[in-house]
Design a protein that fits this description.
With 282 residues, the protein is α+β, with helices and mostly antiparallel strands. The protein is built from seven helices and twelve strands.
């Protein structure tokens, strides 16, 4: 994490200490929990690192995606330290998602296209072969335009979080730290449309949304709806991206989409094994 990003956490430190939390506990929490992330929005003056919407470009032999197209990230334009994820240095990541939950089945997918991959323009409505009016009207509200990146920092929104390394010494202050973050996050790292890395967020935070996604994909695998090895240990998974559909799609105001992936699959660039969970409270 850059010194500039670390300095941005000063309002968090100040509020936590003002509430009586020892400064050493605050520093230990930030050192263990803070993660760099990239917020991608349509506005702002940050560098363009991709596009929301636009033409759907895929290899000719790639099957039609089963979910609507959200957009693509140009990994070569993304600064290497924007996240702590081991992302490829170039190529593109394409995101697909439907902002409603439907049992344990994945509600989206991620496609990685290495640099130089031959592509052709594809039908963006192929995911809805019946062209249902409600689906097409929803898809028409997806964000459209250049993705502008802001380097941000992320802290847990939930009390139940798995931190790397041994347990922190002293009392468990996670509940206090989550409350402090809730009161300072807008001044430090305002939410955007799409977030790469960091912690998952949703309207009604209780447990970790990544842990919920792991539970769902485990059920999907047990039911034969998900192929390949699946770990039920949340420590083996990481948030790849978060889409706050509630910021974009009218009628889905509480919807949050979480793209999660096993650490081994991320390291091996098996983005086809990313799982997409949705929190939606209609």
């Amino acid at each position: 994490m850059t010194p500039e990003t670390w300095d941005r956490l000063s309002p968090f430190r100040d509020k936590a200490i003002a509430q009586g939390i020892p400064a050493e506990d605050v520093e230990r929490w930030l050192s263990a929990a803070a993660r760099p992330c990239a917020t991608l929005t349509l506005d702002g003056d940050g560098p363009v690192v991709g596009e929301f919407g636009g033409p759907l470009l895929l290899p000719a032999d790639t099957p039609d995606p089963k979910h609507p197209y959200l957009g693509s990230v140009d990994l070569a334009a993304l600064p290497a330290d924007a996240t702590d994820l081991p992302l490829p240095p170039d190529g593109r990541l394409l995101f697909f998602a439907f902002p409603e939950s439907d049992g344990y089945d994945s509600q989206g997918s991620v496609v990685y296209l290495p640099a130089g991959t031959a592509v052709v323009e594809r039908d963006k409505n192929a995911w809805d072969p019946f062209e249902w009016d409600d689906n097409l009207a929803m898809f028409a509200k997806y964000p459209q335009g250049p993705m502008r990146m802001t380097a941000q920092v992320s802290l847990p929104f939930h009390e139940e979080v798995v931190l790397p390394g041994p347990p922190l010494p002293g009392p468990d202050r996670s509940e206090e730290f989550v409350a402090v973050w809730d009161g300072t996050r807008d001044d430090i790292a305002p939410a955007g449309t799409l977030q790469l890395g960091g912690y998952a967020d949703e309207e009604c935070i209780d447990g970790d949304p990544v842990a919920t996604a792991v539970e769902w994909v485990t059920h999907a695998a047990q039911a034969g709806h998900w192929d390949g090895p699946v770990s039920d240990d949340v420590a083996d998974w990481v948030l790849l991206a978060d889409w706050q559909a509630r910021e974009d799609v009218e009628g889905w105001e509480s919807s949050s989409v979480h793209f999660v992936i096993q650490r081994d699959d991320l390291a091996a660039r098996r983005f086809d094994r990313a799982y997409t969970s949705v929190f939606w409270n209609p």
